[in-house]
DNA sequence: TGCGTTTTTGACAATCATTATCGTTGCCAC
DNA sequence: GTGGCAACGATAATGATTGTCAAAAACGCA
């Protein structure tokens, strides 16, 4: 018994949020995305934006970043495990993969007897187009 | 002229917070530390605990961790740049150094033209004493 | 196409860590 | 000593995120 339906329904709001994420370049907050939707004339509640983003994040369809002292930022990324190189001025983001880092983290954790290992890694800097 | 005094005054409250951090083993939140101080009979305001922790963090004397969906956690660490391997059950923390990771991050950033590079890295797992 | 069931929505209230206020306290250089 | 100025702290404010719950909308099925 039990699992009968994934029961994920197709709604106008969910599509709107997902579509918007498809067009956005960098990371954006829930509040930002909500404001953009409103300007487009899309009628979507803030609560729904939060819920949708959370769902997409849980499903691994979008990435979440928690910058120091700010709101959560969301972005549609390419598939597979990767990390972000972010401009701390304009937010321009580059996806970077580092197999060596991945294995290093797992190895270090194993050496100390830690199991079920995961990690977070973000690189910050000022991008070429943001002199000064 | 200019720099005359660091102007950092010695106060009973600052000493209390700093001393407490010296005895604590893992990471603790501002609210936790404040509660501990009160139980000891130390009379320190919550605002002051926040301010002191922030100051110590800015001065690089303590490390801050921002676990997903929780408060900021503080801990007195050894000197020098390092990262943390944290048990997501009990909080037991091991400091780890990874020169290879440091250079990798800098190299990747440089390749993309990013300057003034910094990074954040945390490894999570369940420690040996937290079976299951 | 109409219906019932179940999910989703969204306006609004609630949470809660952190920050801002601002009058009082007390450190410390002189 | 004492005056100036940093630090304190009770309290209010902030603000992102989450909880609530009645109403709206999907969708499987007839
Ligand atoms: Zn930039
Ligand atoms: Zn990784
Ligand atoms: Zn543990
Ligand atoms: Zn590092």
- Strand tally of chain A: 6
Give the domain tally of chain A.
2
Alpha-carbon Rg of chain A, integer: 18 Å
Roughly what percent helix of chain A?
25-40%
What percentage of the residues of chain A does DSSP assign to strands (E)?
A: 15-25%
Bound molecules: zinc ion
| Total of DSSP H or I helical runs spanning 4+ residues of chain A | 4
CATH class of the largest domain in chain A: Mainly Alpha
Mean of the pLDDT scores of chain A?
91
**What letter string, H or E per element, gives the SSE order of chain A?**
HEHHEEEEHE
- The strand order across the widest sheet of chain A is 1-3-2
Taking the sheet with the most strands of chain A, its summary is: 3 strands, antiparallel
| CATH topology type of the largest domain in chain A | Arc Repressor Mutant, subunit A
Examine the secondary-structure arrangement and name the CATH architecture of the largest domain in chain A.
Orthogonal Bundle
List keywords for this structure.
homodimer; 132 residues; alpha+beta; Arc Repressor Mutant, subunit A; Dna Ligase, domain 1; 3-stranded antiparallel sheet; 4 helices; 23% strand; disordered N terminus; DNA-binding
Structure description:
The structure is a homodimer of 132-residue chains. Chain A is α+β, with helices and mostly antiparallel strands. Chain A has two domains: 3-73, Winged helix-like DNA-binding domain superfamily/Winged helix DNA-binding domain (Arc Repressor Mutant, subunit A); 81-123, Ferric-uptake regulator, C-terminal dimerisarion domain (Dna Ligase, domain 1, 2-Layer Sandwich). The first copy, chain A, is 36% helix and 23% strand. Chain A contains four helices and six strands, in the order αβααββββαβ. In chain A, the strands form two sheets. Chain A has a three-stranded antiparallel beta sheet with strand order 1-3-2. The first copy, chain A, has a three-stranded mixed beta sheet with strand order 5-4-6, covered by helices on one side. In chain A, β2 (62-65) and β3 (73-76) form a beta hairpin. In chain A, α2 crosses α3. Chain A is globular and about 55 Å long. Mean pLDDT of chain A is 91; it is low at 1-5. The A-B interface holds A 66, 68, 85, 87, 94, 96, 98, 100-101, 104-105, 108-109, 112-128 and B 66, 68, 85, 87, 94, 96, 98, 100-101, 104-105, 108-109, 112-128. The structure holds zinc ion (4 copies). One zinc ion binds next to α4 and β6 of chain A. The site of one zinc ion has 6 residues of chain A, from α4 and β6. The structure holds a DNA duplex (30 and 30 nucleotides).
């Amino acid at each position: 018994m039990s699992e009968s339906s994934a029961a994920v329904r197709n709604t106008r709001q969910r599509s709107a949020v997902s579509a918007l994420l498809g067009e956005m370049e960098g990371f954006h907050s829930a509040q930002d995305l909500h404001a953009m939707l409103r300007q487009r004339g899309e009628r979507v509640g803030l609560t729904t934006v939060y819920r949708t983003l959370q769902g997409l994040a849980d499903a691994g369809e979008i990435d979440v970043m928690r910058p120091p002292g700010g709101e959560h930022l969301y972005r549609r990324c390419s598939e597979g495990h990767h990390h972000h190189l972010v401009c701390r001025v304009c937010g321009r983001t580059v996806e970077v993969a580092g197999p060596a880092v991945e294995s290093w983290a797992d190895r270090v954790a194993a050496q100390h007897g830690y199991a079920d290992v995961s990690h977070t890694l973000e690189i910050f800097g000022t991008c070429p187009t943001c002199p000064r």
